[in-house]
Amino acid sequence: MLIQIIILILGLLMLGFGSTLLVVGAASTAIMFAVRPVIVGLTIVSFATSAPELLVSLVAAFKGSGGISIGNILGSNVINIALVLGISAVIRPVVIKKQIITIEIPYMFFISFIFWMLCLDLHIGRIDGIVLISLLIIFLIYSVATAKDKNSRAASEIPTFFKISKNFFFIIIGIVMLSYGANLVVQEAIIMAEKIGLSQTFIGISIVALGTSLPELATSAVAAAKGESDISVGNVVGSNLFNICLVMGVVGLFNPMQIDKTLHYFQFPFMMFICFILGLIAYFNKGIGKRTGYFFITLFIIYILISYLKS
Questions:
Q1: pLDDT digits over 60-82, tens only?
Q2: Class assignment of domain 38-148+197-310?
Q3: Which of 157, 174, 259, 305 is the most buried (most CB within 10 A)?
């Protein structure tokens, strides 16, 4: 047990250092190349922090543990909004810009709904995978087209090779530390959960989802603390899109699997509910304050408790 605790602490330390390096490198790169920080959060940072979900879900699917694979994605998407944005807002109120409110968040809601519809037949297959990956490509094309920050003062500056190299070094090292740190935490969490006797689906929805969402949590919390709201929000929205379109798209293409019908009774509706609540609050408040942050954290606790009772 002592060894497991040491490994958990090591994993958490790697997540902390990795997220700091990733945020610093990503924010500096955005300023240097006059790219909107939210686009960096929606793409580079989101892809990096979604790497654990991709690896865990693929491995679980190939090993025949479909419950962990799909549960990981549903749980991660709920946790990203309810817990990650909730904690970020408690640390420092998160400002959400108009374009995120009118385009990125609605697209996330749309993707989540399409994903649910594709899963109604209790199967994720190759056609479903192609649809999801196509929707991701559309999003990436939009991101590239809107990446330029016209208001950036750095637009006229020429980045030096040293600055570019330093930022990319920070980003790469940050990604590596996040991936290994999350893997260590998830690995030990699964071992302990199985010893307790929890169901496979609940392990995927809660423990594995929480573990693979630790990079998003660490990254967004650090970004919020540094006042980088665009990266914090962009990371969450982008990660949810990558989780569904890339992770489930790849799983569908290479390892079609069955879906537990009970997920349609609570987990899928709750994922849609939390996306809708985020959109509503963002539209009317233009951000997430501390009280809303505590509200999101409360929703996370309710989600975990109900998921446990239903398992």
A1: 777 777 777 788 899 989 999 99
A2: mainly alpha
A3: 174
